[in-house]
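Fresh eyes needed here. I'd like your take on this protein's tokenised backbone:
***
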Amino acid sequence: MRRGKVVFLDPLEEESGTGFDMRTNVARERGMSVAIVDPDFERGNAVSAIVCTMRPNGVTPRITRLRDVENPQALRNQGIDVVLIALDGDKEQAQQAIETICNLGGFSPIVYGERPDGELLIQCMRLGVREFLHYPFEQGVIQEAFRRRASRAHLTPMKKKAIGRPFVFLGAKGGSGTTTVACNFAVELAQESGRSTLLIDLDLPLGDAALCLGVSSSEFSTLDALRDSERLDATYLSKLVSRHASGLYVLGAPGRYVRVPPPGKSVDQLLTAASKSFDYVVVDAGSRLELADTRLFDLVSTIYLVMQANVSELRNANRLITECLEDYSTKIEVVWNRHTDEMFGINDKTVEGALTLPAQWKIPNDFAAVRRTQDNAEPLEESGVRRIIKKMALAASGKQAEKQDKKKSGLFGFLRA
């Protein structure tokens, strides 16, 4: 019998894949692709060997070994069909991995362990896990688990779990205008999409997103959410946020200076809880580069890097793109704030050369319009600045594509007539 191929990948490495549906000929042609998440190297190898003896549709499975799940989207990109997760070891890490996989949609992981914790098993059930296997596996147990999973996939269409789409705004330097852009983007997103949208101010401890929008100070703040991140759910989160007149919900920074602990898993838990409660989540990260130590950039769909065309910001933006955010290059959209055709010899070509990326968005330099919105603590009035930010929001929500499709449809209808 042909030996199965065991592939050892770094958790952040990605490969392109075709996706999977167990009911299609594609799956039969390329065989099953299995990810095994187990921090125990020897046990992971043993499980890999067992899976390799299985040959559904006569094709040897392809195995991907992972120590943890730091980049869940990589699993989807690689066309993974089945995910096995070990429960022994770090319980919190195992639960996080299971929740991450379940949130991807289309995946219901199979979990296994030598001495599974009862409370953790209950949490797994709540998350949607349906297969629990005791290790070492008895003869035929894992094969039966795979067959049951295949039957469920055949009977039930694989649907992605509805989860909010998060965005983050990061400034190349303090004073880049990150908060102004993030706040007005969030307002436009809420209004244009008609969907629930939350703005989170993570520019702690002195963030002023709430002040920028004229939202009255709340009893609670982002700091409360981070301190109680373990108990965050839709009900609790609803008590912490304030509602802006535009319909946007805001979780502002504290109203007074407080010492903020280093960012950690609480940031990940806050964003995960917010994404489950709101259709869109916009994060104002200011220029807090230490957030790179969290999974914030893993969890968001787009990183808007806000910069202005001066030497110090171009230098900072270059270091962010090529060093700090190099693993997220496909997510980055450069926002050139206060754009002019040329200033002090710096033009579009200079900026693109310095950043290694083009500026996807160019917000015009309209000091008067921005000053009015800051003085009045209200969203932008009609201006060139607002028009570009509105286009950003439409593109983020998919509404821009819908409008273009309607225009094309109308034009073709006219021609057919």
